Amino acid sequence: MTLAVRVPEELSARVPVEQRGPGLERDAVRMLVSRGAEVAHHTFTELPLLLGAGDLLVVNTSATLAAAVDGWTGHARVVVHFSTPGDDGRWAVELREPDGRGTSRARAGGPAGREVCLPGGVRLVLEEPLSGRSERLWWARVSGPGVPGLLRAYGRPIRYAYTRRDQPLSVYQTVFALPAADGAGSAEMPSAARPFTARLVAELVSRGVRFAPVTLHTGVASAEAHEPPYPERFAVPEASARLINAAKAGGGRVVAVGTTAVRAVESAVGADGAVRARAGWTDLVVTPERGVRVVDGLLTGLHEPEASHLLMLEAVAGRVAIERGYEAALQGRYLWHEFGDVHLVLP
Fold first, then answer.
1. Among 139, 105, 144, 107, which Cα is nearest to 125's?
2. Does 107 lie in the same domain as 56?
3. Is residue 219 part of a domain?
4. Which helix (H) or strand (E) holds 280?
5. Would 2 be classed as within a structural domain?
6. Which keywords does this Swiss-Prot/TrEMBL entry list (predicted)?
7. Alpha-carbon span 37 to 319, nearest angstrom
8. Domain hosting residue 116, numbered range
9. Are residues 128 and 187 in the same domain?
């Protein structure tokens, strides 16, 4: 699926909503609501009015990492984006080039054996591309005590050129984020959940809406190349599997908060349609051909219309709903990207 959509530069959300005016909180964003071909305009604080007792929100508890670290390769400055830890101690990384504005741009990866000097005397060595599809991401070994400590000491959140300035890591944590014991987390924020506040969660619970936590650690997005998603680590706990199955059996709607939650839940469903506790790696790519077996609705941010994101949305809502939704978002001057407005797709 492709959409002929060009997002005007002025519709990029450059700072978080709570920094746009006095008294604003994270939930002060707009929310486009799609039900089939019908589109309605709401604020995010109205979410409790659109859900009810028996509905279930599936939320991603992955914490955002300070995944960008400055380094040197030879005489050239680079920015290393740490994406995903492997099972063998290596990390998938992307080497990028500083752009002089506090952000970075894509650069060629490799070759194997390239060494990058990082702060604290740490050295990183590229070993092999993560995939035969692209040489953007590489498996690398890092000397020293470990990457989580390196990120805590010297890292900063990954930031793209449409944002105005660096932000503290706390700005990129959702209310559902739980630090992992092994230091794993998401290279980029699971941003669909960013507008939730503790107050809004309490109001949803008081109305009988339940929450099912899952974990999917997101890797570095392909901001320029729009590659298909790579395998990512995920976990669906037993308690959440039971909540999801109970909601389905009781006629409630299962609404995933973010495409990461969709990927996690749909990776844990069996041929019989039941969700079971699972943990490990998922390479699932949700497409209209594959469809969704568990998720009824989706809360997602507004992102550049690239293939894998749109295919997942089409799998949940159908093509007409997504086309109408994007058209309405542009006409309504909604704000894009991780600090922007959100899109709720309901059956």
1. 139
2. no
3. yes
4. strand 278-282
5. no
6. Cytoplasm, Queuosine biosynthesis, S-adenosyl-L-methionine, Transferase
7. 9
8. 68-156
9. no
